[in-house]
Design brief:
Helix content: 40-55%
CATH class of one domain: Alpha Beta
Order of helices and strands: EHEHEHEHEHEEHEEHEEHEHHEHH
Structural class: alpha/beta
CATH topology of one domain: Rossmann fold
Largest sheet: 7 strands, parallel
Radius of gyration: 19 Å
Number of strands: 13
Number of helices: 12
CATH architecture of one domain: 3-Layer(aba) Sandwich
Strand content: 15-25%
Length: about 325
């Protein structure tokens, strides 16, 4: 039985990781920033530690005595660049400093980065691997890359592994929910003319890969892509339509310039209200790229990473959960 600290334990990916670790009998500790967030974990056998990424003392308490640190927390959407930097870069650095001081002999520090830190690929048939020079196109991607660079500075002091997930979907995901709602309304949105393909990975396949990466002796000081099969907007729309049980939905193509313009307007309106928008300039910049495809050969070689869930099966499970929760 191992003991693991999970940051971002109440989020989409973090909550699935907590469940998977508990299911196999591990002890799980969660770093919580507020009592309201802790409420979502009250019914689970999770040790809660209140902390703040600006408070090294609280971080030391959180990492002390654990075998594994899974650093899942991060800022995916924000009103300004400062928030991205504080949530993705500064938070990671402070957690690493606390770990080095309070628990330098832990088995592994697994840092969850993003494919956005690497940037897009040249074609669907030519996915980039970990040796490709990173070329992030968004603030999110740039700060996730900066967090990776912070991790690298600790490679000689701590056993660190970095994983870069592709697009992740599944139960509890609120981002792709908007796509399902659109398809349910009778519209399959296609963004941009010409071929576009992005890698999609079901969340439970991601979790298996994360745990395997953390526990492998081959992964210290390494970076790995964790992704699934590449799909076009048309394929994603058709899979969503079938999962929703719809026989027909109208395909609407939105040119990149229009997608960006709409995203900018929606972001500005929400920003004026002090709200963070799911549709924003960063997301539109990602969507302008034709290919987000990543090679998982290194992960397959070093710890047997092999996603089991097809897009269709994953979407069916996701829709079933959305409906059970009243989200759809």
């Amino acid at each position: 039985m191992s003991k693991a600290l999970v940051t971002g334990a109440t989020g989409f990916i973090g909550s699935h990781l907590v469940d998977a670790l508990l299911e196999r009998g591990d002890c799980v500790r969660a770093l919580m920033r507020s009592a309201s967030l802790a409420e979502t974990l009250k019914e689970k056998k999770v040790e809660l530690v209140k902390g703040d990424y600006r408070d090294l003392a609280s971080l030391k308490e959180a990492v002390a005595g654990v075998d594994y640190v899974y650093h899942v927390a991060g800022v995916t959407k924000a009103l300004d660049e400062k928030t991205y930097v504080e949530g993705n870069v500064v938070a990671t650095e402070n957690l690493l400093i606390a770990t080095l001081e309070a628990n330098p002999n832990l088995k592994r520090f697994l840092h969850v980065s993003s494919g956005a830190a690497a940037g897009s690929s040249p074609s669907a048939d030519n996915p980039i691997d970990e040796s490709a020079p990173p070329k992030p196109v968004t603030l999110y991607g740039k700060t996730k890359l900066q967090a990776e660079e912070v991790c690298k500075r600790f490679f000689d002091k701590l056993p660190i592994t970095i994983v870069r997930p592709s697009i992740i979907y599944g139960e509890r995901d609120k981002d792709l929910l908007e796509h399902f709602k659109t398809v349910q309304s009778g519209v399959v949105p296609i963004f941009g003319f010409g071929e576009k393909k992005y890698d999609y990975l079901y969340v439970k396949d991601l979790i298996e890969g994360m745990i395997a990466a953390a526990e492998s002796d081959k992964t210290k000081g390494e970076i790995y892509f964790l992704s699934g099969k590449a799909h076009s907007w048309e394929e994603v729309g058709e899979a969503a339509k079938r999962a929703l049980g719809k026989s027909f939905a109208l395909k609407l193509v939105f040119p990149d310039w229009l997608s960006y313009a709409v995203a900018a307007v929606v972001e500005d309106i929400n920003k004026a209200r002090g709200k963070i928008s799911i549709l924003n300039r960063d997301r539109a910049r990602d969507g302008k790229e034709r290919y987000w495809t990543f090679s998982t050969k290194k992960a397959e070689r070093d710890f047997g990473f092999a996603p089991k869930t097809s897009l269709q099966d994953g979407f069916k499970r996701t829709v079933k959960w959305y409906r059970e929760q009243g989200w759809l």
